[in-house]
Design brief:
The protein is built from 19 helices and nine strands. The chain is α/β, with parallel strands linked by helices and 533 residues long. It has helices at residues 2-7, 19-29, 31-40, 47-54, 59-87, 95-98, 105-136, 159-176, 179-208, 213-216, 220-234, 241-271, 281-285, 289-295, 314-317, 354-364, 392-401, 452-463, 493-508; strands at 146-147, 156-157, 345-347, 374-383, 403-415, 427-431, 436-443, 474-485, 523-532.
């Protein structure tokens, strides 16, 4: 409203809508105009915070907030300040407050202070969203994430990021001292982001959407504009812009090294994998051989159902990003309804295949398709991300100790898009032979405290699994990867230095799920040596 009021003092300010006015000004002023673009660019900074803060709501909330709130307000405000400066250039020291009537000066100070706090909150919450997405893409180490809303999945709080922002803010304020100095760093940062965004968008159009070049080239106009403004802002690098470059480069190296290391770790585990199908595990261990042969030609539909339920759609609820397929529950439409509302438990037939049998014989040199292992009177719970194969931690434990617990439980934890889930819909259980079970436990995004023993207790209550009441009698096995960078081969130091840095990060963040609460006295870490190169 104040901006519209000031526009009436000098309506000729509306000529600013004509792009030729800006182009003509740059042609006349030349060098001076080039340097002034860096200052003018600050008028559009802050837009990235709008997207980062509202991005998890989708594109339509961002568009609505921009076109109906932010853009009109900013546009009229700057036009009003420009009209005021045309009328009285001496007010250039602070045109924003000079545009306000005298009687509204102090209320505007209060309003501006509140707006500053809100804007800083947008930066903070936007940082939370970016880090959360980086963790999902494995470009950041896993950190604790708190979901502060049971209705909006994107409303989160990350303590680690909050403290990092606090420390960096204090250091920058003390180091720069004045607002004018900070603007030099801020302009370089935002302008660089816009340049990279334009380039990446054009790459997506070509490589992902497969758009023809004649549709992509017009976006080069935006790249020219971004490049010109970036060149103008680059002149501020010696006077403070270098700080932003150092910070952004540091975070890039951090994220790239973690992503590159995780990529190589997955490749190593895949190449050197000793995991096998859960269908053949009982056969390998020599468990229930008679039952195995009896059921080898039967289908899942012919097997006895221990317990069934009126169940929710398992595929729709799981937001799975694992390397395995979703759980396949058979006879979905014919399951009877019972009051307990628990999930289907299946006795899965053991598949005897010549390929796997030959592989086991070749690897272990043991006849009759079994391996030598001592069964210990205990319950072992192995954390896994697969629904069809044994985890690496189990295979390492078996190869080193040549023993298996009497009751083997493979526990997989999945998070769904709902905030919570009822206990009677939480578990899906399958049995792969005598004493071998696979559990998938569903948790909502707001359920932060996950205890494996509580899951096992629930499985015992609902499915009568042979799990003791005493937590000390259940051992949880978790993987502990140790990274060793190989110096043998053709790989150069350019390829090795990210792996060295990743090895340091991996030692600081070993990879245990941050939301899973494990009792140290009942947990055994199984080491996995990964030689990366």
């Amino acid at each position: 409203i104040i901006g519209i009021w000031r526009i009436t003092y000098k309506p000729s300010i509306l000529k600013a809508f004509n792009p030729w006015e800006a182009f003509d000004y740059l042609l006349i002023e030349k060098t001076r105009g080039f340097y002034q673009i860096g200052g003018v660019f600050l008028s559009v900074t802050g837009l990235e915070a709008l997207y980062a803060d509202l991005g998890h709501f989708g594109r339509w909330p961002v568009r609505a907030a921009w076109f109906f709130v932010v853009f009109p307000g900013v546009l009229f405000n700057y036009l009003g300040q420009g009209a005021l400066l045309i009328v009285d250039p001496s007010l250039v020291d602070n045109p924003f407050y000079h545009a306000v009537p005298n009687w509204f000066h102090w209320p505007m100070v209060v309003l501006a202070t509140v707006a500053t706090i809100i804007a800083s909150q947008a930066i903070i919450t936007g940082s939370f969203s970016l880090v959360s997405q980086a963790i999902g893409m494995e470009c950041s180490v896993p950190v604790k994430i708190y979901h502060t809303s049971k209705t909006i999945i994107g409303q989160i709080y990350i303590p680690t990021v909050n403290y990092i922002l606090m420390i960096l803010t204090i250091i920058i304020i003390i180091g720069f001292g004045t607002n004018a100095s900070i603007t030099n760093a801020y302009g370089v940062t935002v302008c660089t982001v816009m340049v990279f965004t334009t380039i990446l968008y054009m790459c997506v159009m070509h490589y992902t959407w497969h758009k023809p070049w004649y549709m992509i080239l017009p976006f080069g106009l935006f790249l020219i504009i971004d490049g010109y403004t970036w060149a103008s802002n680059a002149t501020k690098i010696p006077t403070g812009g270098w700080v932003a470059i150092v910070i952004s480069t540091g975070f890039f190296i951090f994220g790239f090294c973690w992503f590159f290391g995780q990529l190589n770790l997955r490749r190593f585990l895949k190449i050197h994998s000793q995991t096998t199908s859960l269908h053949t595990l009982a056969l390998r261990l020599g468990l229930s051989e008679s039952n195995t042969r009896q059921n080898s030609n039967s289908s899942v539909n012919d097997l006895p159902i221990i317990s069934t339920a009126s169940r929710i759609d398992f595929h729709d609820e799981i937001d799975s990003e694992s390397d395995d397929e979703d759980i396949d529950v058979k006879n979905k439409g014919s399951l009877p309804r019972v009051a307990s509302q628990v999930r289907l438990v299946e006795n899965v037939p053991i598949k005897r295949t010549s390929a796997i049998s030959s592989y086991i014989q070749e690897q272990n040199n043991i006849p009759d398709h079994t391996i030598s292992a001592v069964i210990t009177p205990s319950v072992g719970c192995f954390l896994t991300s697969s629904t069809k194969h044994t985890p690496h931690v189990f295979e390492n434990f078996l190869s080193r100790t040549h023993s298996v617990p009497q009751v083997i439980i493979f526990l997989r934890i999945e998070h769904i898009k709902s905030s919570t889930i009822e206990d009677d819909k939480r578990l899906a259980v399958k049995q792969y032979g005598e004493g071998i079970f696979h559990l998938t436990a569903l948790y909502g995004y707001s359920e932060n405290r996950i205890k494996p023993f509580d899951i096992l207790t629930l499985a015992r209550t609902q499915f009568n699994l042979p799990i003791p009441d005493d937590e000390s009698k259940v051992t949880i096995f978790t993987p502990n990867e140790t990274i060793k960078v190989s110096t043998v081969g053709w790989a150069s130091w350019i390829r090795r230095w990210p792996l060295y840095f990743y090895a340091i990060l991996k030692s600081l963040y070993p990879g245990a799920a941050v939301n899973i609460k494990l009792a140290p006295e009942n947990t055994i870490n199984i080491g996995i040596l990964a030689k990366l190169k």
